[in-house]
Amino acid sequence: MDYQTSIQYIHALPRLAKDGTLNRITALLDAMGNPQQDQAYIHVTGTNGKGSVANAISHILEASGLTVGLFTSPFIMRFNERLRIDHQNIEDDRLAELTTHGAQVLQDLQTQQPGFVVTEFEFITALALTYFKSEQVDVAVIEVGIGGREDSTNVIMPKVSVITSVGFDHQALLGNTLTSIAGHKAGIIKAGVPVVTGILPDEAQVVVADRVREMHSDWQQYGEDFAAKHPSTFDWGMHFDYYSQHDRIRQLTMPLVGSYQPANMAVAITAAKAYAQEMGWPLSDHEITKGVKASTWPGRMEKISDQPLIILDGAHNPQGIHGLVKTLDGLFGQQELTVIAGVLKDKAVEAMIEALSGRDHRLWLVPVPDTPRATKVGDYPDTVTHFDSWQEALAAYTQEQSEEPLIITGSLYLVAAVRQALLGSDYD
After folding, report:
1. For the chain, what are the domain ranges?
2. Which CATH code for domain 3-293?
3. Which of 65, 118, 315, 321 has minimal Cβ neighbours within 10 Å of its Cβ?
4. Of 276, 292, 181, 171, nearest to 242 (Cα)?
């Protein structure tokens, strides 16, 4: 396959629901030589913040001199973003080579076992683990797709497990209670493996505590063992101080804004330190500071234009939207804003719109482009202004309200489409 054919092949794989086991991914990896074995990993899950935290962990460890693989989803500009080494996207030819090999292995399996299938995410996970093993990275930071316990990434044996947050999302797969959702996420905690968690609701805290006791794992909790303090915003970034039982690092600078980001960074710092301790690897405060400062992350309260001020934020569930609204209040106070939002129909549409409507600003709803999962315009509440496309909403903003800050949110897929169109890229 060439690159384009590879991308088409990957996207043509089925998007099947979880079957409650890891049998499919285990069989595929076994046929590929079990690349997940004998490799150092950090495993990151969470309802929100897992991408930001995985990214920051990678930057911190890279700053210490390690070669670091990073597997995340979804992509914003180009598919290759999902498989990175030292924050360099996998090259087109290498991705095509891996996909060709993976497709041949899958075909052989299907010949031996008629009816055998893997999902798109399972296949990509196998490619990522193969890539990191073949390139001999020192450590790979692996972001969970959905949940944790039954996620295809849970075939790895990590050196550190991380749970950034627990909130309502993907209830059809993870359950309708925080206890059930936390149970899925706590499934990445392995016997004797250190665990780092962010701010958790009480129901999730109980579940994680039970799992930690069962696995005899060392547990570091935000607010108990470490924290971010004294946050302040400057231009388009933040300062904060990191505190733990054994360390204080003052006036850290990160190129992100958001009421939740200092806590995310504190989780990332603690996870990186836990990994370094497990491996006997030196990690200095200077390297941590350097890594945090480098931790840009597109589509998360990202300013892409000053005149007019346009901000992209991929908040895609009620917890994320509440964090966004809190951040907007802190940044803009009572200033009038325009918010363009698109929500997928399998999300908590009403709760998200209600949270967005709670602030005194102009809210315009649009469909998320190029996905059958988009909420149709006619299914949005009649009480909220809506447009047939984000382009129409943007045109209306440009004509009428361009003096106001514009926030585009509700789905990372919407954010990706807008970013690709406004910034331009040879994306796929």
Report:
1. 3-293, 302-423
2. 3.40.1190.10
3. 65
4. 292
